[in-house]
Structures are given as C-alpha cells and as structure tokens.
Amino acid sequence: MSKRYSNEHEWAILDGGIASIGLSAYAVEQLGDITFVELPEIGAEANKDDSIAFIESVKAASDIYTPVGGEVVESNEKLEDTPELLNEAAETTWIFKLKVSDSSEFETLMDEAAYKAYLDTL
Amino acid sequence: MENLKRTALFDKHVELGAKNIGFCGWDMPVQYEGILKEHDACRNKAALFDTSHMGEFFFEGNLLFSGINDATTVDVLTLPIGKCKYGFLLNKDGGVIDDLIIYKAGEERLMFVVNASRINIDFKTINDQLHNGVFTDASDQTSKIDIQGPKAKEILQELVSFDLNELGFFSFAETDIMDSFAIVSRTGYTGELGYELYIDNKVAPLVWDKLVNRGAVPAGLGARDVLRLEMGYSLYGQELDENTTPIEAGVGFFVKYDKHFTGKEALLKQKEEGAPRKSIPFTTNSKRAPRHGMDIFQNDQKIGVVTSGTFSPCVSSGIGIGSVDAKLFDKEVPFELRTGRGSIPIFMAKLPFYNKN
Q1: What is the C-alpha separation between B113 and B101, in angstroms, rounded?
Q2: B229-286, pLDDT tens digit by residue?
Q3: For helices B221-231 and B35-44, what crossing angle results, to 10°?
Q4: Are B92 and B262 spatial neighbours (Cβ–Cβ below 8 Å)?
Q5: In angstroms, rounded to a whole number, what is the distance separating the alpha carbons of residues B68 and B72?
Q6: How far is B135 from chain A (nearest CA, A)?
Q7: ipTM of the complex model
Q8: What residue ranges of chain B have pLDDT lower than 70?
Q9: Residue B51's closest CA among B223, B233, B176?
Q10: Which residues of A60-95 are buried (b: 16+ CB within 10 A; e: fewer)?
Q11: What are the tens digits of pLDDT across the range A99-111?
C-alpha cells in the first residue's frame, strides 16, 4: 500500500477502496500541541478538497481537507479524548476513513519523495 | 523575515531550535519544544523568556514640576523608592495608548517599561508633556529576561549579590549581574513567583546560558500568552487599544483618581455615566478554544467580540476574554461564539481562570 500526500499536508493510504486519511508530521509540527479534533460524521459525503474535519492546537486552528472524495465510513474517536496522539505519531494516526468514489484522485496525489521535495520549497 | 529586528539572544534561540514569528517588528521565539511543555515548566519549575523587544525609558528630573507625574495614571510622587507600579498612558479621551510599569529608582529617577509595538508613540507622548528633565529611550541597549515559576528564586539567587527573599512583590533592586549593571524586579506576566531582569545586551547571552544551565526552561511567546490569559492579564492590541478605556477593558481598578493625569476627565465621566462596553471573562467548558476576533452572540444578536482566547492546560478548557456591549449583554441569558464552522457555547467565568491553590 502506498502513501500519498496533498498540498494541504494530508496523507492518504488506499486499501481495497477505503482510504485512511491523516495529517503529515510536518503539518502537526507546524500546529504544535493539538488540543481538539472535530471528526466528520459517518455517512457524510465529501468531494476531494472539501473541508470535512477541523483541528485546533493551543495557538492555531486549521481545516482538514479530504485529499480524495467519497463517503466517510469511520472516524478515529480516540482523538476526541486524546488528540495528542497526533503529536506523538502523526504519520500513523488516521483521522477518518473514506469509501473512495474515484480512485484516480488518489493517483494524482504526491508520493513520499514528491512530498518531501514539495516541503523543501516551502 | 529579513526586516525584523533581532534581540541580543537571537543566536540562543536558533541554537535551541526555536520556532520564530514576526511579532511587533521583532523576530521572536514563539516556542521551543512546545507550548504545553513550556507552560508546564513555568507553572511547576521555572521558565525563561526573552522579552527584550519591550521598551525601557529612563527619566531624570523633578517628579513634581517636570510634568512626568501627569503623563500616566501612576502616581510617581507617592510611589516609594524601590517599588514599581502598573498603570496606563492614556489619550485625552481615556483610550489606552499603552499599559506600562513605572519603576521609582530615586527621588528624581524613574524607569518606564512599555510594549514593543508602542515604543515610539509612548516616547513621543510622554516627552511632549515634559517641561524639563532628561528623558531617554534605552530600549535598544537593554535586554530583558523574565524568569518565572516556583523554582525561579533558587535558580536566580546565585547570579545576584543580595538575598532575593528581601524583594517583595512589585519591588526591585539595582544590582550587578556578571559585572554589569542590572535591575531585578519581582514582577512578571505569568502569575507565578518570578523576576524580570533588565540587563545590558552584552551580558544577556551569558546570563541566559547561566540560567538555562541552572535549570530554567526556555519558553516562547506562545506559552507566555497562555500563562497571562490564565491569569486574566490584558495584552496591548487585544484587550487594550486607543479606542478602549481601562474601565471598558476591565482594568479600571488599577487607576487611582487622587492626582491629575491625561484622560482623567474622560474616565470620570465614564464612571458616572457607565461605559458603553464591558470586558467579560468566559470559558467554553470544552476543548474548543475561543480565538481573537470571533463574534459573541446573545439572543441571536451580535453583542461583542473575543479579544483574547486560547486553550488553557490548567483549566482543561477553552478560556477567553470578550468585549461586549454593556447595554445588550445580559449575564443571565446563554451566549455563544459564532464561527464559520458553527457556534460554541460559552459561560461566564471569574478571573483569574487559574488559581494557584
């Protein structure tokens, strides 16, 4: 399974039509200590790049844009009580899962090498 | 960030891997290892802040006849030597040009400590009211380091030649630190036991290293903002500005009316007639954090805005201060914040949000 990244610093892992979505370590590092995550509703439909979740740190707040479109099938409820999991392991902590409507959207995202190169331009 | 000014401690911040931001024209550390860790260090051990961007003015002259005592709300004539006092520089409408602390070092000597963004306007405003005396801006030569927290005293003690136990709250001493003139005051912006050190730029990196080696944890402006808001302290540019009086900002109790000061008539009038706006502390009772500029609604009507907000680790809730229309606001009726993403219910609170005991 490959991992892909968006310009907005979300990552996606696609497995059998289901995409797990998280935030990159870079994004979490920029936000600092995470204090709150607003998760999407199960069953919600979203297009690629829609803001469907929301995250707050002590000092900042940010929308989370889904890097691929689809139907939300799962939200990581552990983040409601322990949002700091994202600070501890951003790259392995998924925030929500989507049943992907068009897997070609996943293919347009950056692979790890391209994302790394993208970070160097920031 | 090429045009930003750097403090004498800039290289220290780089060495420590600080994340910097532009703040009032200065390149300042917002955090080192993380706001929560630095906040915890201040509440439970000792935190070290570089606040050298702030301004320092010195006045020498007759305190009664120079006009200096009329310039701010602080009565420097009755202020004992060795003490300092918080107050305001006001415009004639009672609006706050700046909040400041004035130190009385002698019968004819004062120091003013002011906000970085207000140095130029403060200096001009005060200087224009002086008939005589020597008024100088020493901000560029002066570094300021704050050490705050329960361990601050024992960490700092080795660097000074007098017993820190002798220094009461809002008292200060003129002393030597590392063979250089220094002012040490028992003051701060965190609610903890702590000291603010005014030292020459040349020794600032040495003093910083010594305090870090003795266990003080470097902390950035991010933690400082959370700490001050947990105490309900005002921040210039948020709670205070030229269109807001100390009464409207909820800090009118710092103003005494026994002497003349610019803006006094406007404040007295407001006291009598009632201020159009009032400051209210509130919590979200949730992990949602209020943010500066969010709208406050009550009865489906906008009644004010959030002046400061954050998540508070001590209260485990979002906390904030709002400025609301005094006539519209009804403390018996539920009120809420409205954001682009829906509303957040808020609840009246009492200051300080955080009580040490």
Answers
A1: 5
A2: 999 999 999 999 999 999 999 999 999 999 999 999 999 999 999 999 999 999 999 9
A3: 50
A4: yes
A5: 8
A6: 38
A7: 0.83
A8: 1-2, 357
A9: B223
A10: ebbebbbbbbbebebbbeebeeebebbbeebeebbb
A11: 999 999 999 999 9
The pair of structure tokens assigned to B170 is: 């809002």
The rounded distance, in Å, linking the Cα atoms of B82 and B166 is: 11
Alpha helices in chain B (DSSP H): 10-15, 35-44, 68-71, 119-127, 152-157, 204-213, 221-231, 264-273
- Nearest CB to A59; choose among B222, B288, B313: B222
Three-state helix/strand/coil letters over A5-50: ECCCCEEEEEECCEEEEEECHHHHHHHCCEEEEECCCCCCEECCCC
The Cα–Cα gap between B22 and B89 comes to 25
**Ordered structural domains, chain B, with CATH:** 10-54+140-231 (3.30.1360.120), 56-137 (3.30.70.1400)
pLDDT tier at A24 (50, 70, 90 boundaries)? very high
Question: Which among B288, B310, B341 has the least Cβ separation from residue A58?
Answer: B310
Could you tell me which of B53, B353, B95 has the C-alpha nearest to residue B227?
B353
> Residue B36 CA to chain centroid, in angstroms?
20
| Cβ B336 vs Cβ B286: under 8 Å | no
Q: How many CA atoms lie within 13 A of A20 on its CB side?
A: 15
Min Cα–Cα distance to chain A from B64, Å: 45
CA distances from B182 to B123, B140, B144, B227 (A): 22, 15, 10, 26
The hierarchical CATH code for the domain A3-114 is 2.40.50.100
- Residue of chain B nearest A51, judged by CA positions: B341
Reference A4, options A73, A100, A88; nearest CA is: A100
So what's the pLDDT on residue B2?
61
DSSP per residue, B78-128? TSPTTBEEEEEEE-TTS-EEEEEEEEEEETTEEEEEE-GGGHHHHHHHHHT
List the structure tokens of B184. 């040490």
Q: Which chain B residues are Cβ-neighbours of A36 within 8 angstroms?
A: 287-289, 311
Our measurement of the distance from residue B168's CA atom to the centroid of its chain's CA atoms, rounded to an integer in Å, reads 19
